[in-house]
Design goal:
Length: 294
């Protein structure tokens, strides 16, 4: 796969610690404490993701625990190609976890296939609801991570004017939320055009009426957090992804796609055959996957 193949190719039981910044103890995660409510073994998913992240760190040049804010969760890790690059496209990944769990430590493996194709990857953590942070804290963190990259990624070989935002599940909601109206970048003295594309994976993009009061406590906040409600200055390209084993996400994906197409965005829906909620994010880190090669 080459950089010209498409946006997705360009962007796309234990506790762990990373240096001075501690990742969440997965034994405290909602999905782990309530494993009987989920078909997927999320403890196994998080553990395997962490193992693959350590393997990626052994294979690639990287810089960890870069602060874009004061909170311990306002940190990102950067992974670089083995061969030194300059003005390389930049992928920012935002993890899932229902806004109440997750950490960048579980997802560094996503960087490995992209690094092979000269792409710089940033994997960010953001503040979570169990520590009292509700919307718009998470969206503000995602925005500040982008602002930080725009100001600092050049020293790691990345092009600050070529940022692609990718997110899974809750991270997909954030990706769409901050991506479909890029005008907020003007307030930071930056051009909205630095965000070249978005790839939200396995998310909902209209949370009005959803049981997410712990994230967005009021109807007005839910409206603000719903991407389909504010498509004003979207990026030129998007791929909206879901797995066919998570059929409930088809309509939200198609609704966002239709809204973006009305705004003249080059947008499409990608349904990953026989993939469930964990598979879709794993596909992002697999060079031979349909998603990566899109």
């Amino acid at each position: 796969m080459k950089k010209t193949l498409g946006i997705a190719a360009v962007i796309i039981t234990s506790a762990f610690t990373i240096g001075a910044a501690s990742a969440q103890d997965i034994s405290t995660y909602y999905t782990v404490q309530n494993a009987d409510k989920f078909e997927i073994d999320w403890a196994a998913v998080y553990n395997r993701g962490t193992e693959m992240t350590h393997e990626t760190r052994a294979a690639l040049p990287h810089k960890l625990d870069l602060a874009y804010g004061q909170d311990i969760k306002q940190r990102l890790d950067i992974y670089m190609p083995k061969n030194k690059v300059k003005n390389a496209p930049v992928l920012l990944f935002l993890h899932g976890g229902g806004f109440r769990e997750g950490d960048r430590l579980h997802y560094g493996y996503i960087a490995e296939p992209f690094a092979k194709h000269g792409i710089v990857t940033a994997v960010a953590s953001y503040r979570l609801t169990p520590t009292g942070h509700t919307y718009p804290a998470q969206a503000e963190d995602a925005k500040n991570a982008i602002i930080w990259l725009a100001k600092n990624v050049a020293q790691y070989g990345g092009d600050p004017k070529s940022i692609f935002v990718v997110g899974h599940s809750a991270g997909a909601i954030l990706t769409a939320d901050i991506g479909v109206d890029r005008n907020w970048l003007k307030g930071a003295g930056l051009s909205p055009d630095i965000i070249k594309g978005i790839v939200p994976i396995s998310g909902r993009y209209n949370i009005l009426g959803r049981d997410l009061d712990y994230y967005a406590p009021t109807q007005e906040l839910k409206k603000q957090a719903s991407a389909v409600q504010h498509v004003f200055n979207p990026p030129p390209s998007s791929i909206i992804v879901f797995g066919t084993l998570e059929e409930k996400l088809r309509l939200p994906s198609e609704e966002l796609n239709k809204t973006l197409l009305k705004s003249k965005v080059k947008s499409e829906v990608l349904a990953l055959k026989d993939e469930d909620h964990k598979d879709t994010v794993l596909s992002l880190g697999k060079e031979g996957s349909v998603l990566f090669n899109r």
